[in-house]
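Per your request, structure below.
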C-alpha cells in the first residue's frame, strides 16, 4: 500500500464516518512520508499503548514503520493488511536482478515478485509477534489476498503441535 493509497483510504473513512466511530474507542495515528512527523506519531502511539488507552497506527508496507520496528507485547495485538506489498518494478536494480534470476536460475519475473511481496507481507505482520509468549491476530483484508493465494504462504513458527494445527486449520480467506 502506498502513502497515496493510505491517504485516500483515511479520507474515504472520514467521509463515511468510519474514522469518527474508530476514534470514539481508540486514538488513531498515521505514518506519513515525513520522517519527523512519523516519529512523533510513533512516539504518541507507543505512549497511548503504555498508558493503557491503546491506539491504532496506520502505516505503509515497505515504509518506515514496517522496517525494523518491533511491536511486541501490548504494542501490537492485531495487524490488518490491505493489499500485497509488491516492490516498485521500474527500478534499474530490480530489473537487473530479475534478468539475472531468469538467466541463471530460470525464475520467472512474476514468481519472484510474488514471492518477494509475500515474504515482505509476512515480515510486516510478523512485527506484532516477537516471542514465544507473545500473541496477536493477523488478517489479510482484501480481495487481492485471495487472488494471490496468501493462505499457503502464511505459517506459524510455533513448535507446539496443537497451536500449529489450530492456527493452520483456522486460516481462512474472506472475500
Amino acid at each position: 500500500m502506498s502513502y497515496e493509497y493510505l491517504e485516500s483510504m483515511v479520507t474515504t473513512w472520514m467521509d463515511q464516518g468510519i474514522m469518527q466511530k474508530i476514534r470514539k474507542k481508540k486514538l488513531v495515528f498515521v505514518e506519513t512520508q515525513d520522517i519527523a512527523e512519523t516519529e512523533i506519531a510513533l512516539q504518541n502511539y507507543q505512549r497511548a499503548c503504555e498508558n493503557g488507552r491503546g491506539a491504532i497506527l496506520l502505516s505503509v508496507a515497505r515504509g518506515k514503520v514496517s522496517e525494523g520496528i518491533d511491536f511486541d507485547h501490548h504494542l501490537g495485538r492485531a495487524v490488518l493488511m490491505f493489499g500485497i506489498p509488491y516492490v516498485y518494478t521500474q527500478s534499474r536494480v530490480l530489473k537487473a536482478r530479475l534478468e539475472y534470476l531468469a538467466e541463471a536460475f530460470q525464475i520467472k519475473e512474476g514468481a519472484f515478485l510474488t514471492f518477494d511481496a509475500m515474504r515482505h507481507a509476512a515480515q510486516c505482520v510478523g512485527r506484532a509477534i516477537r516471542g514465544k509468549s507473545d500473541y496477536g491476530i493477523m488478517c489479510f483484508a482484501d480481495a487481492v489476498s485471495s487472488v494471490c493465494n496468501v493462505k499457503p504462504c502464511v505459517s506459524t513458527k510455533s513448535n507446539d503441535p496443537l497451536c500449529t494445527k489450530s492456527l493452520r486449520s483456522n486460516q481462512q480467506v474472506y472475500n
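The CA atoms of residues 98 and 104 lie 10 Å apart.

Regards,
D.
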